[in-house]
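Dig into this one:

. . .
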Amino acid sequence: KHVLKGEVNMNIVYDKIVGFRTYLIKCEKSNATTEKYIRDVTAFCVWLGEEQLTKEKVLEYKNYIVQNYAK
């Protein structure tokens, strides 16, 4: 099967998100908290796309959230 670069990256991201969920469960976070964190991280990953994760990108995303959702 031919795998595109984005598919490989999304598989890596998916694995990291699953690991994060496992970590939250081990830390005894509530189901609601776990689901909220996973939704937020997933939304950030979708927004980031193929871009490299940098502090500047995190700050850009924070500004995006403030501009679009904190009204």
Summary: The radius of gyration is 14 Å.
